Inverse folding.
C-alpha cells in the first residue's frame, strides 16, 4: 500500500537520490545552500501535514519555528557545553510540539475551526514578533543570554555529536537523513489508521464525529505533530545561520509556508517538498541577480500558478504524469477524487 | 475535456518558463564570474527594495560612484574593481544567504554594506567564520568590537555627546526622549540618559515606540504635559517618521527637537512639508546641505547628482559608503595585496582619506572612524543652517571604558552601555 | 479628559478606516485580501501626486477613491473573479498582488514621495492644540459607516449582496447575478481602501511600504468584528479603540499595540464569529423571546 508506482513516488525517489549525490557534484557553498532550503522544507511539510491532511489552516507555523529557534539559542548558549547541543535540538522539538498541543487544545476543544484558526495563529505570531522586538534591554536576560531585541541572538553554537561538529557536508547529510525519515513517516501516516481518520476530519468534521472519533483530540494531536515539525525547521535554520531574530515570527515568515504549500499542492507532501526547494532557489537567484524586477516576477509567478493550476503546480504535474504513463491509476484516482468532492 | 487539456499544457508551459528563467539567470551569473584574475571583486550588500530602500538605494549608488572612480583612476593593483551587488530586500535571511554566496561562490575581496543593525548582526558572524574583511558603513548605536569589522559611520561619541551638551547649554536641562523600541533606540536612549546626567540635566521621561507605529496622539499628549526644554527624537523607519507631521499639528512647536538619525539619514526635512521638521537640531557626519560651506562636500554632491540625476538626497550613509570604499582601496594599495590580513594591517596603520566630509581616519584600536561632526538646525521653513563643527572626534568609548584594543586582542562582540 | 477623548477619536478613526475596505471584501466575499495595505498605499500615492499637480485636496481624494476602485475592478476581473469561494487560495494570490504593487510603485516613483502638509490647522481647547483634520477623520469614519449601512440595507444592490453573502446558491437561483455583485463589492472594498490611503496621506510618510502600518490593525479589527461588514467594524473599532487608548495612556505605546493582538486572540477563542456573531445571536434570541 505504501510504494505505489506513480509519478509522485518515482519523482520522490529521484529527488532523494539526487539530494544524496548532490555534494559530489557541486562546491561547498551550494551544499550549504541546499541544506538551508531543506531546513525550510520541514516548515512546509508541517503545514502540509496539518492543512493538507487534516484541513487545519494555520497561518502561524512561524510561531513554533521561532519559539524553538529561540529555545535552542538560549539553552545551548546558557549551558555552554557544546556536547549538550543535541539535547537542545530534541528538547526544542518537544517544546514546540507541547506548545502546539496546548494551543490546539485551547482552539479545537473551544470549537475554533477553519479560517479562524488561521487568524488566531496569525495574531499569535505577530504578538511574539512585537514582544521579541523590544527585548534588547538587560531586563530581558534568560540566564546569561540576552534575548537581543530586534537584532536577535547570534553566534549560536552548531550541533555537536560527541566531539564531532556538524558543519558543511555532515550538516547537510544530517538534515537530509532526518528529512527522509520524516518524509517516509508522513507517507506512511497518510494511510495509517490514524491518518485515515485525519483525512476524514478534513473531508467532514461532523460526520467523523458521529462515527465516534474524538475530533478535537485528533486535531490537537496532528497540530502538535505539525508544531514539532515546524520546530525542527526553526532549529535547523538556527544551526545553518547560527542566528535568529524576531523577523522569524513576522508576517512574511508566516505567509511564505502558506504560499508554498498552496501553490505546490497542499494535499501532497512530495509537491510541498519540491516546490519549497524550487521556490527558495528561484527567489534567491532573482535576488542575487540584483534585478529590481525580482519581487515582481515572484509575485506574478505565484498569481499565475494559482490561477491556472488551482490544485497546485507540482501536484498537477504529478497528475498529468500519471495520466500520461499510468492511465489505470489515474483513472481510479480521479474516481476517488470525484467521490470525495461529492 | 478540451478545457482540461488546455489547462495542462498551460501548466507545463509555465514550469518550462520558470525553469528556463532560472537557468538563464544562473548562466548569466556564472559566465560573468569566470575572469577572476583580471578583476578584484568587491561585494556590496544593500537593500534596494523593501522597508530600508530609502537609504539602501542611496548607499548602493554611492558604492557605484566610488567603484567607477577607482576604475577611472586605473583600478587597484593594475586590476579593475568589479562590484557584485545582490539585492538584500530588507530581509535578514537574505543578508545571510547573500553574504555566504559572496564569500564562497563569488570569492570577493571584501564586503561593504548593511543598513539596519539587525542585518549587520546577521552577517557579522559569517564574516568572522570566513575571515572576510567587512565594512559597515553606517551610523549606528556603537559598541561593535570585531577584528574583521570596520565602521566608517557615526556612533554616539560623534553625535550624541556633542548634541546633548549643546542642547542643554542652549535651551535648558529638562530632556524628553522618544525612541524606536529596539536595539538602536534603546541603546541610543541610554546614551542620552548618560550624557544628560553627566551634564547636569534631567531626563523627564523616555518613551519607546514599537517599530511600525504610525499614530502618535497619546505620545504627543504626554510630551505636551511634561513640557520639556528639549525633545530628543530617535525615530526610525517610514512609519515612525509620521510623528513629525502629527507633532506639528497638535504638538508644541516651540520645543526644540534634537536627533542623530533624522534628516541626515532619511531626509525628513525634504519629504515633509514645513513646519513638520522645523526647529530641529541634528549632529551629522555629512549632509548634502554641507555643500553651502565646504567645497569637498559640494564636489561630492555634484558628482553624485550628475551620475544619478533622479535621486532625491545624498545623506550621511551614502557618504560613509563612498568613504568606506575609498579607505579600503587606499589600504589595498598600501598593502599591495587584497589578502585580508595584510589589508587589515594597512587599515590599522591609521590610514586616512580626505573625503567629502573632511578627513576620515581609522582608529586602530576600535576599527571605528575619527572624523568631523557638524551641528545643523532647521528654521521655520526647514532650511538647514550649519551652526558648529567639531574636528576629528575620536570614537574612544570602547578603548577607554571597555579596554578594547583590536590590534592586540581578538574580539567579536557588541558592547552596550546597558549593562 | 479631552486629551483621552481626542486619542480615542484618533484610534477609532484609524481602526475603522484601515479596516473598512478589508471588512467589506472579507465579509461579503470571504476573500482574505493581503494586498489591502497596498490598495491603501495606491490611494495615498494618487492623492499625493494629484495634489502636487495642483488639484485641490478634496478632488484628489475623490480621484483616489475612483482610481483605486477602478484598479480593484481590473484586479477582480483579471484575477479575483476566478477565485470566488476559494478563501485560502486568495491568500496566495493577493500576497502576489501585494509584492507586485509594492515593488512596481518603488520602480515607478522611487523609495519615497514628498508628503503633503496636513490641512485645516489646529484648534485650541483648554490650552492644548488638536488637529482639526484628525477630528474630521473621526467624523468621516462615522459618516462612512452610516453610508455603508444605507447602501447595504436600503438599496437593491444591498439586498442582493446580503442574499449572496448568506447563501450564494439560493441567491443565484432567485436570479441574482452573484458574480456581478462580487465584482462590484470587490471594487467598493478597493475604493474604500483608496479613500483611507488618500485621507491619511497628508498625515504620514508616503512610501511603497505605506500600507504596512495599516495591515495589522485592519486585520485585528476585522477579526474582532466578525463577518458582518457593518456591525463588526463599528463595534470592534469602538471596543479596540477604548482598549488601546486605555493601555496606551497607562503603560505606553507598546502595550497599546500588544493589547490589540491579545484582545483579538481572546475574542476568537470566546466567540469565533466576533461581535457580528454575538449581535446575531442576541437578535435571534430577542425575536424569539
Amino acid at each position: 500500500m505504501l510504494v505505489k508506482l506513480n509519478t509522485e513516488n518515482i519523482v520522490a525517489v529521484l529527488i532523494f537520490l539526487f539530494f544524496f549525490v548532490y555534494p559530489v557534484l557541486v562546491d561547498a557553498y551550494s551544499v550549504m545552500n541546499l541544506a538551508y532550503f531543506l531546513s525550510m522544507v520541514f516548515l512546509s511539510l508541517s503545514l502540509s501535514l496539518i492543512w493538507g491532511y487534516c484541513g487545519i489552516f494555520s497561518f502561524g507555523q512561524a510561531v513554533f519555528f521561532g519559539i524553538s529557534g529561540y529555545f535552542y539559542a538560549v539553552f545551548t548558549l546558557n549551558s555552554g557545553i557544546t556536547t549538550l547541543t543535541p539535547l537542545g535540538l530534541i528538547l526544542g522539538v518537544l517544546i514546540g510540539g507541547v506548545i502546539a498541543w496546548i494551543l490546539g487544545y485551547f482552539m479545537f476543544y473551544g470549537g475554533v475551526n477553519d479560517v479562524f484558526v488561521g487568524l488566531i495563529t496569525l495574531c499569535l505570531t505577530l504578538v511574539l514578533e512585537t514582544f521579541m522586538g523590544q527585548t534588547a534591554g538587560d531586563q530581558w536576560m534568560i540566564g546569561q543570554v540576552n534575548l537581543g531585541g530586534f537584532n536577535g541572538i547570534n553566534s549560536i553554537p552548531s550541533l555537536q555529536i560527541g566531539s564531532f561538529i556538524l558543519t558543511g557536508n555532515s550538516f547537510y547529510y544530517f538534515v537530509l537523513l532526518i528529512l527522509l525519515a520524516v518524509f517516509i513517516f508522513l507517507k506512511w501516516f497518510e494511510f495509517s489508521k490514524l491518518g485515515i481518520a485525519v483525512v476524514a476530519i478534513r473531508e467532514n468534521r461532523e460526520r467523523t464525529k458521529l462515527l465516534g472519533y474524538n475530533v478535537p483530540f485528533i486535531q490537537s494531536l496532528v497540530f502538535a505533530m505539525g508544531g514539532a515539525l515546524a520546530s525542527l525547521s526553526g532549529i535547523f535554520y538556527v544551526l545553518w545561520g547560527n542566528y535568529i531574530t524576531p523577523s522569524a515570527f513576522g508576517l512574511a515568515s508566516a505567509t511564505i509556508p502558506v504560499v508554498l504549500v498552496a501553490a505546490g499542492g497542499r494535499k501532497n507532501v512530495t509537491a510541498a517538498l519540491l516546490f519549497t526547494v524550487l521556490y527558495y532557489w528561484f527567489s534567491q537567484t532573482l535576488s542575487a541577480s540584483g534585478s529590481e524586477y525580482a519581487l515582481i516576477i515572484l509575485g506574478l509567478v505565484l498569481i499565475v500558478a494559482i490561477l491556472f493550476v488551482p490544485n497546485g503546480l507540482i501536484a498537477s504535474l504529478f497528475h498529468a504524469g500519471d495520466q500520461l504513463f499510468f492511465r489505470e491509476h489515474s483513472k481510479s484516482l480521479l474516481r476517488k477524487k470525484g467521490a470525495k468532492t461529492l | 475535456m478540451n478545457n482540461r487539456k488546455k489547462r495542462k499544457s498551460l501548466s507545463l508551459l509555465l514550469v518550462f518558463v520558470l525553469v528556463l528563467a532560472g537557468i538563464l539567470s544562473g548562466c548569466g551569473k556564472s559566465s560573468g564570474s569566470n575572469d577572476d584574475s583580471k578583476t578584484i571583486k568587491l561585494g556590496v550588500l544593500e537593500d534596494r527594495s523593501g522597508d530600508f530602500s530609502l537609504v539602501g538605494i542611496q548607499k548602493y549608488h554611492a558604492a557605484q560612484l566610488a567603484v567607477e572612480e577607482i576604475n577611472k583612476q586605473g583600478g587597484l593593483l593594475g586590476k579593475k574593481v568589479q562590484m557584485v551587488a545582490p539585492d538584500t530586500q530588507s530581509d535578514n535571511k537574505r543578508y545571510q544567504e547573500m553574504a555566504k554566496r559572496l564569500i564562497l561562490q563569488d570569492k570577493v575581496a571584501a564586503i561593504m554594506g548593511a543598513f539596519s543593525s539587525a542585518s549587520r548582526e546577521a552577517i557579522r558572524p559569517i564574516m568572522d567564520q570566513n575571515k572576510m574583511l567587512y565594512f559597515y558603513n553606517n551610523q549606528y548605536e556603537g559598541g561593535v568590537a570585531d577584528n574583521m569589522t570596520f565602521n566608517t559611520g557615526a556612533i554616539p561619541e560623534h553625535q550624541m555627546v556633542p548634541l546633548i551638551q549643546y542642547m542643554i547649554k542652549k535651551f535648558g536641562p529638562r530632556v524628553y526622549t522618544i525612541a524606536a523600541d529596539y536595539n538602536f533606540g534603546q541603546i541610543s536612549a541610554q546614551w542620552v540618559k548618560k550624557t544628560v546626567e553627566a551634564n547636569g540635566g534631567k531626563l523627564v521621561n523616555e518613551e519607546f515606540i514599537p517599530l511600525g507605529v504610525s499614530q502618535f496622539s497619546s505620545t504627543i499628549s504626554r510630551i505636551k504635559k511634561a513640557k520639556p526644554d528639549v525633545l530628543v527624537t530617535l525615530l526610525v523607519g517610514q512609519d515612525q517618521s509620521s510623528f513629525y507631521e502629527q507633532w506639528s499639528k497638535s504638538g508644541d512647536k516651540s520645543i526644540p527637537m534634537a536627533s542623530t538619525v533624522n534628516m541626515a539619514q532619511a531626509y525628513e526635512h525634504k519629504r515633509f512639508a514645513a513646519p513638520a521638521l522645523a526647529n530641529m537640531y541634528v549632529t551629522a557626519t555629512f549632509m548634502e546641505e554641507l555643500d553651502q560651506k565646504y567645497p569637498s562636500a559640494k564636489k561630492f554632491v555634484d558628482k553624485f547628482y550628475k551620475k544619478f540625476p533622479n535621486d532625491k538626497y545624498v545623506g550621511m550613509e551614502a557618504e560613509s559608503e563612498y568613504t568606506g570604499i575609498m579607505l579600503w582601496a587606499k589600504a589595498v594599495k598600501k598593502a599591495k595585496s587584497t589578502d585580508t590580513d595584510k589589508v587589515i594591517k594597512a587599515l590599522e596603520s591609521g590610514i586616512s582619506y580626505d573625503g567629502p566630509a573632511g578627513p576620515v581616519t581609522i582608529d586602530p584600536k576600535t576599527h571605528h572612524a575619527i572624523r568631523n561632526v557638524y551641528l545643523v538646525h532647521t528654521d521655520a521653513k526647514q532650511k538647514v543652517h550649519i551652526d558648529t563643527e567639531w574636528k576629528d572626534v575620536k570614537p574612544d568609548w570602547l578603548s577607554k571604558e571597555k579596554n578594547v584594543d583590536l590590534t592586540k586582542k581578538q574580539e567579536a562582540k557588541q558592547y552596550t552601555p546597558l549593562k | 479628559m479631552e486629551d483621552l477623548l481626542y486619542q480615542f477619536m484618533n484610534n477609532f478613526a484609524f481602526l475603522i478606516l484601515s479596516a473598512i475596505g478589508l471588512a467589506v471584501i472579507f465579509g461579503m466575499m470571504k476573500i482574505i485580501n493581503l494586498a489591502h495595505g497596498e490598495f491603501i498605499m495606491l490611494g495615498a500615492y494618487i492623492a499625493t501626486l494629484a495634489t502636487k499637480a495642483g488639484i485641490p485636496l478634496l478632488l484628489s481624494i475623490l480621484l483616489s477613491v475612483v482610481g483605486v476602485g477602478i484598479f480593484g475592478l481590473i484586479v477582480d476581473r483579471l484575477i479575483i473573479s476566478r477565485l470566488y469561494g476559494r478563501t485560502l487560495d486568495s491568500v496566495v494570490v493577493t500576497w502576489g498582488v501585494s509584492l507586485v504593487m509594492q515593488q512596481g510603485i518603488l520602480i515607478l516613483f522611487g523609495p519615497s514621495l514628498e508628503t503633503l502638509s496636513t490641512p485645516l490647522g489646529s484648534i485650541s481647547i483648554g490650552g492644548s492644540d488638536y488637529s482639526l483634520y484628525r477630528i474630521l477623520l473621526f467624523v468621516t469614519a462615522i459618516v462612512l459607516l452610516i453610508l455603508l449601512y444605507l447602501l447595504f440595507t436600503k438599496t437593491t444592490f444591498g439586498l442582493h449582496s446580503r442574499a449572496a453573502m448568506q447563501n450564494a446558491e439560493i441567491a443565484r437561483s432567485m436570479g441574482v447575478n452573484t458574480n456581478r455583485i462580487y465584482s462590484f463589492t470587490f471594487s467598493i472594498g478597493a475604493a474604500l481602501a483608496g479613500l483611507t490611503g488618500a485621507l491619511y496621506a497628508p498625515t504620514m510618510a508616503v512610501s511603497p511600504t505605506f500600507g504596512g502600518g495599516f495591515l495589522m490593525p485592519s486585520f485585528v479589527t476585522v477579526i474582532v468584528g466578525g463577518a458582518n461588514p457593518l456591525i463588526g467594524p463599528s463595534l470592534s473599532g469602538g471596543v479596540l479603540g477604548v482598549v488601546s487608548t486605555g493601555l496606551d495612556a497607562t503603560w505606553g505605546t507598546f502595550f497599546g499595540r500588544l493589547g490589540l493582538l491579545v484582545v483579538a486572540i481572546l475574542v476568537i477563542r470566546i466567540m469565533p464569529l466576533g461581535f457580528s456573531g454575538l449581535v446575531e445571536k442576541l437578535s435571534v434570541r430577542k425575536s424569539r423571546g
